[in-house]
Amino acid sequence: MAASTAMRRGRRMLLTLAAASVLAACATPQRIAKNEEGDAATTISRVGRFALRVQRPMEEPEAIQGGFAWQDDGRKLVLDLANPLGTTLARVESGPDGAMLRESNGRETFAADPDGLAARALGSPIPVAGLRDWLRGRVADAPRGQVSARDEKSRATAFEQDGWDVRVSQYDDTGPVRLHMTRAEPGRTIDLRLVITE
Asked: Is 96 exposed, middle or buried (0-12, 13-18, 19+ CB in 10 A)?
């Protein structure tokens, strides 16, 4: 029993180290230029790396990693997704009138919200709508989230919202520098890690 527990811990540690090394190896895209119409006081701009892993029973995991640049002024959100070499694969833009995905080949797709468009670019869902709050270190008002842990400054470090189990750490002046999000769905488990680099 103790041996199997130690083996599971060892495997988990190796996976964590592997994910960290993958994140460290990726180039990040350019910071997105500020929207002149946006409110500078409420604008958040983040650049970093992501690692997305999808596991289905009895199958090899699917994994993709790369860089991202994020800018959100409260009205308009812009997300650039890049491959590990830093080449932009797609841009997702979202505002009051809906969301648009512009792929590197110039093709544009429109939808009511950005989550589905980001999933189209990466092949698996990522919680773009939730990240608007999570990158600021807060839990969105709706749908209601459940905070399970806070740090010594009362900032959320673990919470569940909209089907995602979120762990954040290493806050800077803007928000958390590391985010780990997991989601269990029928037939698959989704694991998404973000590391802010600037």
From this structure: exposed
